[in-house]
């Protein structure tokens, strides 16, 4: 599959950096060649490290230590000038940090009773319109949306009905933020539930169950009318939903693919091409996929209501980088093909995917 | 007795002997010729020719040509000398024998050596082939590596370029920002200066206020620019909560939570229960075949219950229990009868026994468990033990939350309890 001379995209490993702590999330700092690694040190404290890409190596610019291990972070809700980092930690705290002055957070709230598994931000970085908002999903089964201008209380709270047993929320993602009012949050849970919450009408817009625990969900673009949603699960499967047409009973059409034998930890769409995405697996491998649209994206069913037609997914390239799961993945929004991934073997790798222009 | 071939003709030179042997119709193959240094034998049964040569020859280089009804030997002498005759004249039997054996031995050794030599050459050839293929593969790999390396370098260069671009862009932006800020501050500063001059505050005051104003200026400047931005953003959303339900656990659940083990246990238990027959044969001898079958008795009991004959139903169930005391449904149904008969304590007992037998709790025996809880709850309530009753109702609700009747009854009991608490 990995023919060197062929016209397929190649995944070139550019830099490999050994760390002495467990890295849970890695993110590019927008508009720069710097990246952040977030994780947990052996003594149970949280670490944020800022690296800069220098030729063939990473140079550590700054290291920030916090009291609780950090699980996830995002730049999605901050402006390009400020570039504040929002993090969720193992204790359920949501903090927003100014990396130039990281002693005291710009915003802090104990949002959840248990670890915040996933975080996403929208409305910042000059992308899209509307208020900047951050969504967090936690093991306590709730999904909360925060506005950095409102202290202490979330602007939206998706919680289980009283008395119901809760399921861990493993992943959250914003989408459909194409104007000032519209916004949706998609949440994936450990029992295979996927729920789509509409924040404009404050209601549950769609839910489904894909049998295996949902590790990662992402819309192909946050700031457009929702187009595609990819959800990855345990046991190596992922589903691509066509979000343009919602059928009243059948919901959204989807195509699913079983890629690897192990859990697919992350899916990330290429910021420069929304039909290309990369999945990272529990076996330490990365797969690059391309989605092809069907000839007709919607058709009428027997009763005359519109239903979507799912397309197909083809594998462009795959590469195995590690023996441990690659738990985090981020494309650089500024340089096409540049991405960083962090694995549980305490290594962070900067990769370059070539020939993406030819797809 | 072999037929000796005696006719032969030969001639010689200094270095070689040419021997021609007519075969008289016999067909010769290479296998029929045996030659060693001083011994030559041709054996084509029944024909036989042998010769003890005058002097040793070089048997490896000598040749024999078979054709035209005869064999033509070209024997190269070891020592170039003219032979008196082809064969040794005075060869006695022993010498002959000795020579023959020697010859055979020598031939064997030679054969062995040859095979050895062959093996060695074969091995060498193999090694050579292996090395050649390895070299080829190495070359291929290197080629791929080189391609990859080139890609990497190209890409690294592009990255450096882009990075430098970024740095420049950043610097440019920061310069711009500073410029803008200055521009904003300038008119404000001038305005402040004017006001100060107008108010005529003493010098100290002026310096203090000057400092204050510049600080305040900076603060207001940044706030100024930020205010503009905030006006463009919509206000924070009004807080709201969305309640969610999770997909109920249906067997098989998300595989990690599979209840397979428990289900298996339950099925096993049921199978065992069916087989148990704790019968006391002496008493039951006069019963009909049907009446010895607990299931048949259970059906009978159910029918009688449906018709309102509660005592009869109880009797049927009693007999069934005597036959097989491991079937939970018998106790369950008997409990219902006791409820109707207002034997409340017995109803509680039977429901409890049924619940005991309905372990492990699996979706299969959900309905039965719900019924058991409800019946026991009812019995408790009728005994005015409302708290225990409520506990049972809540347990039933937990198993089957969708049952409206149970909910209503549970509500009623709660009210009752609250009523009694208030009054007391």
How would you portray this structure in words?
- The complex is a heterodimer of chains A (359) and B (424).
- Chain A has 359 residues and is mostly beta strands.
- Chain A is built from no helices and 30 strands.
- Chain A has strands spanning 11-18, 22-28, 34-40, 46-54, 57-66, 70-74, 85-89, 93-97, 107-110, 116-122, 133-138, 143-146, 156-160, 169-175, 184-189, 193-198, 203-209, 214-219, 228-233, 237-247, 251-258, 264-270, 273-281, 285-292, 298-300, 306-308, 312-320, 326-331, 338-343, 347-353.
- In chain A, the strands form eight sheets. In chain A, strands 1-30-29-28 form a four-stranded antiparallel β-sheet, with no helix packed on it. A four-stranded antiparallel β-sheet of chain A has the order 2-3-4-5, with no helix packed on it. Chain A has a four-stranded antiparallel β-sheet with strand order 6-7-8-9, with no helix packed on it.
- In chain A, a hairpin with a 5-residue loop joins strand 2 and strand 3.
- The two termini of chain A are 16 Å apart.
- Chain B has three domains: 3-89, Immunoglobulin-like; 91-176; 291-418, Tetratricopeptide repeat domain (Serine Threonine Protein Phosphatase 5, Tetratricopeptide repeat, Alpha Horseshoe), CATH 1.25.40.10.
- Chain B has eleven helices and nine strands.
- Chain B has helices spanning 93-199, 203-232, 260-275, 281-284, 294-307, 310-323, 328-340, 344-357, 366-382, 386-399, 404-423, and strands at 3-4, 9-12, 16-22, 33-35, 39-44, 47-52, 63-67, 70-76, 240-244.
- The longest helix of chain B is centred in the middle third of the chain and has 107 residues, at 93-199.
- Residues 199-231 and 251-255 of chain B have low confidence and may be disordered.
- The chains are: A mainly beta (359), B alpha+beta (424).
- The interface between A and B is large, with 61 and 38 residues.
- Chain B: It is found in: Cell projection, Neuron projection; Dynein axonemal particle; Nucleus.
């Amino acid at each position: 599959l990995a023919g060197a001379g062929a016209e397929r995209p190649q995944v070139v490993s550019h830099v490999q950096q050994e760390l002495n702590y467990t890295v849970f999330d890695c993110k590019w700092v927008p508009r720069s060649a710097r990246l952040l690694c977030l994780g947990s040190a052996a003594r149970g404290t949280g670490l944020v490290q800022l690296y800069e890409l220098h030729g063939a190596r990473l140079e550590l610019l700054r290291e920030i230590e916090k009291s609780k291990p950090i699980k996830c972070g995002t730049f999605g809700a901050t402006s390009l000038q400020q570039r504040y980092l929002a993090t969720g930690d193992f204790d359920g705290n949501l903090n927003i940090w100014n990396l130039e002055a990281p002693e005291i957070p710009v915003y802090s709230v104990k949002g959840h009773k248990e670890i915040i598994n996933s975080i996403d931000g929208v409305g910042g970085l000059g992308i899209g319109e509307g208020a900047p908002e951050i969504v967090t999903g936690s093991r306590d089964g709730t999904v909360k949306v925060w506005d950095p201008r409102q202290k202490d209380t979330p602007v939206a709270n998706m919680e289980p009905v009283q008395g119901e047993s809760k399921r861990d929320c493993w992943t959250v993602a914003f989408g459909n933020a194409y104007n000032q009012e519209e916004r949706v949050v998609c949440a994936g849970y450990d029992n295979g539930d996927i729920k789509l919450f509409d924040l404009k009408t404050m209601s549950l817009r769609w839910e489904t169950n894909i049998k295996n625990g949902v590790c990662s969900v992402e819309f192909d673009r946050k700031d457009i009318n929702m187009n595609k949603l990819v959800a990855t699960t345990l046991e190596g499967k992922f589903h691509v939903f066509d979000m343009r047409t919602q059928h009243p009973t059948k919901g959204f059409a989807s195509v699913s693919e079983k890629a690897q034998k192990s859990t697919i930890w992350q899916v990330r769409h290429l910021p420069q091409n929304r039909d290309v995405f990369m999945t990272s697996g529990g076996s330490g491998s990365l797969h690059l996929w391309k989605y092809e649209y069907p000839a007709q994206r919607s058709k009428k069913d027997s009763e005359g209501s519109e239903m979507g037609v799912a397309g197909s997914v083809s594998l462009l390239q795959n590469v195995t980088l590690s023996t441990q799961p690659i738990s985090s993945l981020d494309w650089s929004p500024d340089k096409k093909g540049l991405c960083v991934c962090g694995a549980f073997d305490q290594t962070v790798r900067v990769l370059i995917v070539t020939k993406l222009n030819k797809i | 007795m072999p037929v000796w071939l005696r006719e032969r003709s030969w001639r010689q030179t200094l270095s070689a002997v040419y021997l021609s042997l007519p075969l008289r119709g016999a067909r010769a193959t290479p296998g029929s010729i045996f030659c060693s240094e001083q011994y030559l034998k041709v054996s084509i049964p029944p024909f036989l020719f042998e010769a003890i040569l005058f002097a040793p020859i070089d048997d490896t280089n000598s040749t024999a040509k078979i054709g035209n009804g005869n064999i033509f030997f070209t024997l190269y002498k070891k020592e170039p000398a003219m032979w008196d005759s082809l064969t040794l004249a005075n060869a006695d039997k022993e010498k002959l024998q000795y020579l023959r054996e020697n010859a055979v031995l020598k031939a064997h050794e030679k054969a062995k050596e040859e095979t050895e030599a062959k093996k060695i050459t074969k091995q060498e050839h193999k090694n050579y082939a292996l090395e050649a293929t390895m070299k080829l593969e190495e070359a291929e790999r290197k080629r791929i590596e080189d391609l990859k390396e080139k890609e990497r370098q190209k890409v690294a260069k592009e990255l450096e370029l882009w990075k430098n671009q970024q740095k420049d862009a950043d610097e440019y932006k920061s310069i711009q920002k500073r410029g803008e800020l200055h521009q904003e501050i300038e008119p404000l500063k001038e305005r402040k200066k004017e006001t100060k001059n107008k108010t005529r505050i003493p010098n100290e005051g002026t310096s203090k206020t000057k400092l204050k104003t510049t600080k305040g200026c900076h603060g207001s400047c940044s706030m100024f620019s930020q205010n503009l931005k905030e006006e463009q953003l919509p206000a924070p959303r009004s807080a709201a909560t969305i309640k969610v339900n999770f997909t109920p656990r249906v067997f098989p659940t998300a595989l990690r939570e599979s209840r397979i083990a428990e289900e298996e246990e339950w099925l096993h238990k049921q199978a065992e229960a069916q087989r148990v027959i704790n019968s006391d044969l002496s008493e039951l001898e006069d019963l009909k075949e049907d009446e010895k079958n607990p299931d048949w008795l259970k059906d009978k009991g159910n029918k009688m219950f449906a018709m309102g004959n509660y005592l009869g139903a109880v009797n049927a169930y009693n007999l069934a229990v005597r036959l097989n005391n491991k079937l939970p449904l018998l106790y369950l149904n008997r409990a219902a009868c006791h409820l109707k008969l207002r034997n409340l304590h017995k109803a509680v007992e039977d429901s409890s026994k049924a619940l005991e037998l309905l372990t492990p709790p699996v979706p299969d025996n959900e309905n039965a468990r719900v019924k058991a809880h409800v019946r026991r709850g009812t019995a408790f309530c009728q005994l005015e033990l409302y708290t225990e009753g409520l506990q049972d109702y809540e347990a039933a609700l937990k198993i089957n939350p969708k049952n409206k009747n149970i909910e209503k009854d549970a509500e009623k009991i709660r009210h009752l309890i609250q009523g009694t608490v208030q009054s007391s």
